[in-house]
Amino acid sequence: MRARTGAAAFLATAALALAPLPAAHADPAPLTLHAAPRGSGTDCTVGHPCSVEGARDVARTIDDRSVRVELADGTYELSKPLKLGKEDSGVTWAAAQDADPVLSGGRALTGWTVNADGTWTTKVPEGITPRQLFVDGERAVRARGESCAASVCDATKTGMTGAEKTGIARWARPTDAEAVISVRWRNYHCRITAVTGDVMTFAQPCWTNSASGTDRTGPAWDSTTVDSSRYSKVAFFENARELLDEPGEFVWDSAERTVTYLPRQGEDPRRSRAVTPVTEGLLVLDGAHDVHLSGLGFAYSAYQQPNTDEGYAGMQAGLTLTGATGPVDHAGRFYTKPAAALTVRGGRDVTVEGNTFSRLGGAGVVFEQGTQDSALARNRFTDLSSGAAYIGDTEPMPTAELAGARNTIERNTVRRTGVEYTDSVGIWAGYEAETVIDHNTLEELPYSGISVGWGWNQPEAQTSVLRDNRITDNRITDVMLVRHDQHDGAAIYTQGAQPGTVISGNYIDRSAYGNTERDGNGVYLDEQSSHIAVTGNVITRVGYKWVSNWAGYGIDNHATGNWTDTAAPALSGRGSTMTDNFTGLDRLPAEAVKIAEAAGADGREKVRQLRPDLAREGTATQFSTDGTATADKATDGDTTTDTRTLSEAGAWWQVDLGSAQHVGQVEVWNNSSMTTADFDVQLASSADFSDATTVHVTGKALRPTVLDTDTEARYVRVRLTGTGRVALSHVLVHP
Question: What's this model's pTM, rounded to 2 decimal places?
Answer without folding.
Answer: 0.94
